[in-house]
Amino acid sequence: MTENFTLTLSCGRRPGIVRAVSAFLFDNDCDIAEHQQFDDSMDGSFFLRTSFVASGTTDIEQLTESFRELADRFAMSYTFNGCSQPRVLVMVSKMGHCLNDLIFRWRSKNLGGELVAVVSNHEVLRPMAEAAGLPFVHVPVTPGTKAEAEQRLLDLVAEYEVDLVVLARYMQVLSDKTCRALHGKAINIHHSFLPGFKGAKPYHQAFDRGVKQVGATAHYVTPDLDEGPIIEQQVIRIDHTHDPFRLATVGQDAEALALSRAVRWHCENRVLLHGHRTVIFS
Predict the structure, then answer these.
(1) 202 pLDDT higher than 70
(2) Which residues participate in catalysis according to the annotation?
(3) What is the CA radius of gyration of the chain?
(4) C-beta of residue 75 within 8 angstroms of C-beta of residue 12
(5) Fewer beta carbons within 10 angstroms: which end of the chain, N or C?
(6) CB 101 within 8 A of CB 256
């Protein structure tokens, strides 16, 4: 009986890191299945992702504790993850294209995570969620109830033991407090290459400017609105024949693809945060 694990780490560049990690895994009867690393020559940082197979008697706590001495020697930040899929809560408003795509990929078993609930400030997408067998929680938001609504969200994150929150065109701005509480475990999809065409009717803005490409950006949520570390971007070529409706249709395709890729890469532990940037082992 064997189990799959993933080790991700970051530290300063220095000789011997890969050798030490490989020796540790060998000494613990682990067989490396996939290995990727990146040396950032700009600031001297080192990043590594290694997936490996271990015996059934190995567990996360054991590996984490055994690795601590080596990690201290190289001043590493590190995480071991097992084969269980992260639990994902999706937040939506009225537009369902991203939710529909996430549900399809989840049912097809290629999302990388397990959808556990859908939260919305409107009732519009309840039928879509419940048809997929997902709990749908309606949390209305008004200026006077925003704080209570966000606390309800955090309560749901705890109740469903959520590992990742996905804002799938959730049209409410989260407070700084909530953004900090969800640091590194909340992904948003934005309807453009940031920071262009913010606000209402982005595709009408794009049409008025005569754009030739439609894009979408998936990024981590931070207190700085739509300025979190970028995980994935998609672009689709368009021309003068695209009216605002066609632009929105094409744009929604880009949004769905960028978001699903970002979710999968996060769930597969392929994204390492590096300040305002990310290292993606795709």
Answers:
(1) yes
(2) 226
(3) 21
(4) yes
(5) N
(6) yes
